[in-house]
C-alpha cells in the first residue's frame, strides 16, 4: 500500500534522464516500451551545447553528443539492450502509476499522509495516517515500511544522521511554455547551457532543457525547463514575473511569449543517510540520499534502490527469521552506491566551473570587461590564443564525460564482489553467489 499526500503525480519537472539500468528494471515491470514511446526521440535526446545566448548575437561555444546516442550508440548497446532515454519525471510517473494500479488496483492512497510511525516489540510497525480529504486519523499495522518521503522528516525522526555536504547553494527551476524550438539555432540539443559573462559562469547563467510533449506540437506550445544557481543580481525568491524576466535575460530573445507554469526553489545537497535500515523501516530514494542532478543519477539510484530491496522483502514476508540477514544486505549494497553517486554528481557540478568556465577564462572574480574579452578570444580566429582556447574548451567538454557519457556510473560495468561460498537452494537451479 502506498500513501501519497498529493492528489496525483508530480506537477513540477524533476529528473529527466533514465539510464540503461533503470530501463532494465522497467522491462521487468512490463513498461519499458511504454516509457520509450513517451520519451524524447533519439534525434534530440543525445546532444547538448553551450551558447552565449539564443538571441540575434548569440553564438555557439561548443556542442557534443551524449547519453548513448550518435558516436556512443555502439558502446552503449554493448552494455545493455536497454537504452538511455530522456523522459521528464512528470511524464514518467503517470506510466508508473498506471502499471501500479494494474498490479494492485487499491494499492495507492492519494491525499493521505503518514504523520508518525512506531516499531513495536513484536516486529510490526504502526503507522499513523492522516486522511487529508476527509480530515480523519487512523492507524494501520505493517510488517515492513519503505520510507520514500524525499528525506523530509522520517530519516531524522528515526535517529538517522546524514553525511556529506548540505545546502551547497540555492537553485531555482521554472517549468514554462514557449515556442522556442523555432528560435533555437540547433533544436537537436536537449540541454542548452548558457555562458553569460555578466552572470558569473555557466551554472549561474543557467540552462534550458526540452520537456516535450513528444511528438513536438506544431502550434508552438512545447514546454521547457529553465534552471540556474542564484547569482548576486538575482532576487532571493522568484515570482512568475521576475522569472520570466530572468529567462528572457538568459535567452536574449525579447519578442517570445513565455508562460510560466510552475516554479521551484531548492538547495543542492550531496548527502547520504548513515544507514538505510532501522528495524523494519527501509529508506529509499531521497530519504536515503540526496544527489545533485548533474549526471542524472538521483532518480535512477532511487529506482534501483527499490529494485534491490523489494525481492528481499518478498522472501522475508515468507520467513523473516531466515532472511533477516538478507535484508541487511540492502544497506551493505546500496549505501556505498548512494555515497559514490553523490560525490560523482557533486564533482560533475563543480567541473562546470572548474573545467569549462576555466577553459573559457570566465570567473566571478573577474570584471565584466575581463570576462567578455576572455570569451571573445574563442570567436576571433585571428587572435593568437584562439586555437589553444578552442582546444581547451574541447578538452573540458571531454572531461565532462563523467556527466554526459558515464556508462560506468549508469550501468555499473564493473560487477560487485562475488560470494561463492553457498547458494540458497530452490531459488535458482545450480545458482552460485
Automatic annotation (TrEMBL):
Single GO term (MF): FAD binding
Classification via Gene3D superfamilies: D-Amino Acid Oxidase, subunit A, domain 2, FAD/NAD(P)-binding domain
Cytoplasm as UniProt keyword: no
One matching Pfam family: FAD_binding_3
UniProt entry keywords in alphabetical sequence: FAD, Flavoprotein, Oxidoreductase
InterPro entries (UniProt xref): FAD-bd, FAD/NAD-bd_sf, RIFMO-like
Record domain FAD-binding: where: 1-341
The protein's name in its UniProt record: FAD-binding domain-containing protein
